[in-house]
Automatic annotation (TrEMBL):
UniProt-recorded Gene Ontology molecular function terms: methyltransferase activity
Coiled-coil ranges per UniProt: none
Protein name according to UniProt: TrmH family RNA methyltransferase
tRNA/rRNA methyltransferase SpoU type domain mapped to chain residues: 65-201
Any Gene Ontology biological process: methylation
Assigned keywords, A-Z: Methyltransferase, Transferase
Length: 215
């Protein structure tokens, strides 16, 4: 590779090369990253930090909403839901059903997100009740109410269903309410990961920006 090409490649590379100058002092610095560079997909403020130091810092600021997704048929949306949950700093992500899920869409964000597995809906519901969290289903059922005008509680878990079947009747029955996202085109639904991003952002608008929805 010519020098020019090498420079071009470096310019498009994510992250930073080895630390220049005397190494900084502090327990959160990762000596291996300082020595060889930090190419992780993290904010610049976390460059060269140990992984556990980043998680610990995020833990001091996590929001009070949780997200859950049902996983009975290996739903491919889960990785994207985890990535969005990381972006909006959800307290935890819950996988209900099968333990295994495809991590591809998560783009490694699952390493920074607390993920809890519940084998059954019953287990999930008893956990949510023990934490005093409002269970809110997100789906388009005849009894759903519009997310756009719903006053989301601060402490809640937003639950999403699978491509195809949507939320199970068990989650529907356990939910304090089921919320629908208004659509205007010809399709019945959007995918679960898109719905999850919209719902999480509704919580952010309400509880970080104080935007109370108008009926
Ligand atoms: C593709 S949908 C499932 C199909 C849907 N139950 C139906 O009746 O056509 C998968 C998941 O995405 C979410 N979802 C998709 N569109 C939605 C909408 N307009 N409002 C609320 N949730 C939606 C729900 O969590 C749903 O369980």
């Amino acid at each position: 590779m010519t020098e020019e090409r090498e420079d071009e490649r470096r310019e498009h590379e994510v992250g930073v090369g080895p630390w220049r100058g005397p190494w900084p002092e502090g327990d959160h610095w990762d000596h291996e990253l300082l020595a060889s560079g930090d190419r992780r997909n993290v904010l610049d403020r976390y460059r060269y930090w140990k992984h556990e130091a980043i998680v610990a810092e995020l833990d001091t600021r996590r929001h009070e909403f949780h997200v859950a997704i049902e996983n009975w048929q290996h739903d491919l949306n889960i990785g994207t839901v985890v990535r969005t949950a990381n972006a909006f700093l959800a307290k935890e992500v819950h996988i209900i059903g099968r333990r295994r899920w495809n991590r591809r869409g998560a783009m490694v964000t699952d390493r920074y997100q607390h993920i809890r597995h519940h084998a059954t809906v019953e287990d999930f519901v008893s956990w949510a009740r023990s934490e005093d969290l409002a269970i809110l289903g997100v789906d388009i059922f005849p009894d759903s109410v519009p997310l756009e005008t719903y006053e989301l509680p601060r402490r809640c878990v937003l639950v999403f269903g699978q491509e195809g079947p949507g939320l199970t009747p068990e989650v529907h029955a356990a939910a304090q309410a089921t919320l629908s996202i208004e659509q205007f085109g010809s399709t019945r639904s959007i995918n679960a990961a898109s719905a999850a991003a919209i719902a999480m952002h509704a919580w952010i608008r309400r509880w970080v920006f104080g935007q109370v929805p108008k009926a």
